[in-house]
Amino acid sequence: MAVVENPTQLPATLADDLDLIAEMTGDFARSYDIEETLRVGLAHISTRMEAEAASLFLMEEGSGELVCRACFGPTDVTGLRLPNGQGIVWRAVSRNATELVQDTRDDPDFAARVDDDTGFRTRSILCAPLSVRDERLGAIELFNKKGGGSFDSDDVRVLQALAASAALALINARQAAAMAERQALSRELALASDIQRAMLPKERCAEFPIHGINLPARGVSGDFFDVVELPGGRLAFAIADVSGKGMNAALLMAKTASLFRCLAKRLDGPGALLQAIDSELAETGSAGMFVTMVAGVLDPATGRVRLANAGHEPPLLCCGARMSRIDEGLPPLGVIPEMFAAGCPESEIDLAGGALYLFTDGLTEADDDGRMLGSLGVERLLTRHRLLPAPERLRAVVAEVAPEGAALKDDLTMLVVEDRRDGPLLRRLYPAVPASLAEVRRAVTGALTAQGLEDSVVGDIILAVDEACQNVVRHAYGGSDSGDMIVELRRKGCELVIDLLDFAAPVDPARVVPRDLDDIRPGGLGTHLIREIMDRVEFLKPPAGAGNLLRMVKGLGNQ
Amino acid sequence: MVVTLEGEIDLQRSPAVRKQLMELMFDSRDVVVDLSGVAYIDSSGIASLVEAYQMARKNNSRFVLAAVSQPAMRVLQLARLDKVFALAETVAAGLKA
């Protein structure tokens, strides 16, 4: 730009140009219909630059051709397509530079064909590309300066500025449209995810023998698990993983889940169930998609499980410290229907006080310090968290491989089936904070009332449990240090055994003494109340990984 | 004056109860605590009452537990404090005594 003597005084034409740029930028920013705005802008530009005619070309996605989207002047060539490489417009676009052709007769790239078709006589051309960084959007082309002259280098600068502002507006509008589309899609995905979540069984109390957890990698999941109550107290359960991820997998999952729900009550056993689902999927399935699935039936009264496996990760049976894989099974569902036509083999498993774990490959293939976790890794994590009640145990194992906020590579689902015949009346984990105490009292009251104990006995035991929990909250964790505690209630013959486990630093039992009651002081009462109510109170050696284990025993007499 | 305690006085609520009682005792007020609506009270709640009682003795003011509910009485008995506190059958009796 020329050096101006008095910098506060802009030349009249430059001021006009700035006004035009400002006005167009404002129009673009306000506009919802960007192409209509470009048409209006093109008229402004043509008038300002004294062009006889003008065209706006935009690059068409897919074909890569330049298509005329707006015109100004005596001829309208809207819709005209310029295949790659033809004419001055393509030259401006491919060089990404403004082209000034003062006399078309001297330029071999000038395509006279359009003039022949329209009857318009093109003498000179000024063409500026519309581009933002490396993205080429199209070009603005002006024809013939009014009054017979030619465009000059000032015109080049003005059109460049106008084109730059138009290109930015175009990109903004496109990004806004794409964002709106993405938002609509993500709303739909969230809705689908909600519907899927509603298909998973509701979480049961910790004492229920079957618990599951599902973490979808994206909003929707290709995994599922379910539990269906059968006559006679038996429980049918299943875990499945649909090949692929995203919406297709989610739809096939929904179908498989529905089939399981409706067939589980009608068919006898998991083998027949997998056979029926396989034939249904083979008949109506989509090519190349398959489902791996384990189905089973637990009889809580005997602790026995009937199990059938179609291509799924072998379940793990944990009895005490011993773990074994249940390897038997057929290929996935929906692949080779003939294999299931002959029947699907079942395994008969005695839980013997232990637990059966089922999981999708989202767990075994999860990242474990740069390596896949594998089934040995799963065993390691289960051992590490064995003390936790089932729902918290599943959450803790999953949290090890999928910390909150981490992006999952695959859906992750886990199911645990426990033999609870000798199980506690109650086994719950609570954060060791004062706010948990009301919840502890409610849960213990519920379990004791269900045992038919008298209200006065229940009241005393609640007080003792509360006081013991307070000692954990106030003394074991000692204020700033915080953690969890597990309350466990068992009935052994005519005794009620209450175990309170924490994960704090070991407490010296010698320091936990009842206060001298002749000394009337606030505090120190809790331990006295516990000993007054309970028949035996003792600190036991806690299991490895825990902090303190307090056992309180109350004889129930003839209750 | 009459202070009414209601519901479950546990470790979560007892700090607020203690603060309320201490403020009154600090002003050497005669206080009757209505315990008729107490469904549950633990050692931390009892400790607040003990502390208020001790302060009243020091200040020569009165501190009476009135209309003690059955659950609260049970804890007082277990702590052998039923013989320590001044107890009244009703709030009216507590105010008169």
TrEMBL record, chain A:
Locate the PPM-type phosphatase domain: which residues? 205-419
Q: Name one Pfam family in it.
A: SpoIIE
Keyword Transferase listed? The answer is: no
Molecular function GO labels: phosphatase activity
Q: Which UniProt keywords apply?
A: Hydrolase
GAF domain span: 33-180
Keyword field contains Transmembrane helix: no
SMART domains recorded for this chain?
Answer: GAF (SM00065), PP2C_SIG (SM00331)
Superkingdom: Bacteria
Gene3D superfamilies attached to this UniProt entry: 3.30.450.40, Histidine kinase-like ATPase, C-terminal domain, PPM-type phosphatase domain
What is the protein name for this chain? Answer: Serine/threonine protein phosphatase
- The scientific name of the source species is Magnetospirillum moscoviense
